[in-house]
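Let us work through a complete example step by step.
Step 1: write down the sequence.
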Amino acid sequence: MIDLFIIKVGGNVIDNPELLQTFLEKFAAIPGKKILIHGGGKIATRIGDKLGIESKYVDGRRITDADTIDVVTMVYGGLVNKQLVAKLQANGCNAIGLTGADANIIPAVKRPVKEIDYGFVGDIRTEILHTGPLKALLDTGITPVFAPLTHDGNGQILNTNADTIASSLAIALSQHYSVRLIYCFEKKGVLRDPADDESVINLINKEIYQQLLEEKILTDGILPKLQNAFGAIDNGVKEVLIGHADDVLSNTTPKVAGTLIC
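Step 2: predict the structure and record it as tokens.
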């Protein structure tokens, strides 16, 4: 029996109004306790462009300089988060928008500069996540909706990977609930052939994962999700699933679609 669903929805779904509307209707229909974590990188890029703030990336990771942290705070924590909350309310889901700074739920540290200076990017302090406020919200029937932002405890907001936030919350809350962590995006699961949407790998354990790595089948985009998934499984999360946003409702039942991580 799953007591809590923690669901992360990708930025490509956020960018597609039709996909997003369908996803939110199905998310709202999920019975019981649930948490939503969202991205929104392309929207931040578009608004940054309008403001004359160039987006910079290294290996697909955003460099969050002083101007950019202001943009992502406005876009992730404001525009995207509150639009999602309003749409969920319209679908009968009593949601509340949060960042990691709210109620001190997700403390983080600014990523140290090594070969690359990522700027105001946060690495979560998993040992001191504060789940009490989340548990109180969940137990009163309120659905938290998290923007991918954390804080350093000294007044600085930090940009943090949404997949990692989802995994960290799932691990911390597995002390109180039986948790299924679901990563939703625009594909049907982990694909053996990225060009073939039907080539879903239905089950990945550590042995299969190593084989896929050796065969170089896994793309860069899916690797962080798998790394976070196995990190969650190793630390108390009951189940992790990677699948299409359209399947989010069915993926909260025993009849799942997509890729099950175990």
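Step 3: interpret the result. Helices lie at 11-14, 17-28, 41-50, 66-90, 132-139, 162-173, 206-214, 223-233.
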